[in-house]
Design brief:
alpha+beta; globular
Length: 307
């Protein structure tokens, strides 16, 4: 069996040093669509080094190495074909605002392995800290088609959504009622080519032949690019542009995005943060991100966090 759950869970953590500069942050922000309009003061905080604020989702690419969904495939007990791998979900908890430049220690391990019957799900947990203490913790859910069925733990029901068009998953209900805000964001034709310069060189997002082998008509956008675009939309629309208010951010990837499409981002203010649903406009609002929650700090320092 290509996935040895016991071996993967028993393996010791992998630790390494990562570093980043303002240039890396600027490149990431451009990769998720920041900078339009180019002279907008709200955009300059993402694109001008003298005003730079770091969107917390930058943590998913900090250090410039492969993302957790790729790093998890080289862990002990895991030996699978990249063409059968999809990013099932991503969560991120920020312990304090991310600096515009830094050096930190990243510690990664397989935290869970779930048997979904027709697929396996690996949870790759990465904890990052610098000399001042913890910075962030991220969980990447790695969905591997055709690797389930060994009788293992199915995991929490909230994790059973099958990503990127797979059938058979259970999707948690989205908020009902009129959204508090709805915005649309266009994905440029070259967006995946620019985003991959932040470290994710998976050919699924650039090579038409590889994408076809993986079952797609053409290269698809990185799920983490959609993840970053959506968080930016929430910060700009409902959090006053204040990136430091984001405490955590979690989603499940329910469908693919193709470069050139339009994302519709619907947001509901609820106790505990902001619920978000993202869909592809040109495909009759086909779901893209589901089960999405942004937990944020209040605007007033004396008020307690909302979640």
């Amino acid at each position: 069996m290509p996935i040895d759950a016991a071996k993967a869970l028993a393996a010791g953590p992998r630790t390494g040093e990562i570093s980043w500069s303002p240039r890396d942050v600027l490149l990431y922000h451009l990769g998720i669509g920041a900078g339009l309009p180019a002279t907008d003061p709200g955009e300059l905080r993402y694109t001008l080094e003298t005003r730079l604020h770091v969107l917390p989702s930058f943590a998913t690419v900090a250090g410039g190495g492969p993302p957790g969904v790729i790093g998890g495939l080289s862990m002990p007990g895991v030996d699978v074909d990249l063409a059968r791998v999809l990013h099932g979900g991503q969560s991120l908890t920020v312990h304090r605002p991310l600096p515009v430049a830094g050096t930190a220690t990243a510690t990664s391990r397989i935290a869970a392995v779930y048997d979904k019957g027709t697929a396996a799900v690996l949870v790759m947990r990465t904890e990052v800290a610098d000399g001042d203490g913890p910075l962030w913790t991220g969980d990447a859910e790695i969905f591997v088609r055709g690797e389930g069925g060994w009788g293992g733990d199915r995991g929490p029901s909230a994790r059973t959504a099958a990503p990127a068009g797979e059938r058979g998953g259970e999707l948690a209900g989205e908020p009902t009622g009129e959204p508090d805000r709805t915005v649309e964001r266009t994905v440029r034709e070259d967006q995946a080519l620019l985003y991959r310069l932040s470290g994710d060189y998976n050919p699924l997002h650039a090579d038409p032949e590889f994408a076809e082998r993986a079952g797609f008509d053409r290269p698809i956008l990185h799920g983490l690019c959609t993840y970053g675009m959506t968080l930016k939309a929430v910060v700009d629309a409902l959090l006053g542009g204040d990136v430091t208010r984001v405490r955590s951010w979690a989603t499940r990837f329910a469908g693919v995005v193709y470069p050139g499409e339009t994302l519709r981002v619907r947001m509901w203010r609820r106790d505990g943060g902001v619920r978000v649903a993202v869909s592809a406009v040109e495909r009759e609002d086909a779901p893209v991100l589901t089960g999405t929650v942004v937990c944020d700090a209040p605007e007033r320092e004396t008020a307690p966090p909302v979640c």
